[in-house]
Amino acid sequence: MHSPRVSDVMWNHIEPIRCGTALTDVVRALLDNHVTGLPVVDGQRRVLGFVSEQDCIHTLLVSNYHCEGEPVVDDVMFRQPITVAPDLSVVDLAQNLGAGKPKVYPVVDHGRLVGIVTRTAILAELARMGCGDSQPRYASADED
């Protein structure tokens, strides 16, 4: 069975977050792109961190409550994100997914961000790759 690669299912049209970006702008990017997290990069697209909805929710809640001014992504990003290579097999990535693992993975080639891959994209590809008849078979009342 030919296994598609991460590069076959990754999104490469989403603009990553740059260091120093206001958290409200990060939230806007997450919402506009319908993703739960985005990589944070420097000017050469090297991945420096990752920011998720959960990071933003907590920080904005605290910031708004204490009226501390507008936080920036550098204050909340996770600084050691798990990245994947574009030539990694979708099946291999799926086998390594587990509870608590990220929902979005930065895809890095030669040290530079080239896209992201989501668990949703992996799930869709695995379903598309399914064997045989893709229609579920339901037992009728006559088949007892």
Automatic annotation (TrEMBL):
Its name, as the record gives it, is CBS domain-containing protein
Provide the leader sequence positions.
none
What stretches pass through the bilayer?
Answer: none
- Fetch the InterPro entries from UniProt: CBS_bac, CBS_dom, CBS_dom_sf, Diverse_CBS-Domain
List the PANTHER family hit by this protein, alphabetically. Answer: CBS DOMAIN-CONTAINING PROTEIN, CBS DOMAIN-CONTAINING PROTEIN CBSX3, MITOCHONDRIAL
Does the keyword section mention Nucleotide-binding?
no
Domain CBS per the UniProt entry, residue ranges: 10-68, 77-134
CDD domains per the UniProt record, alphabetical? CBS_pair_bac
Instruction: State if Membrane is listed as a keyword.
Output: no
Alphabetically sorted, this entry's keywords are: CBS domain
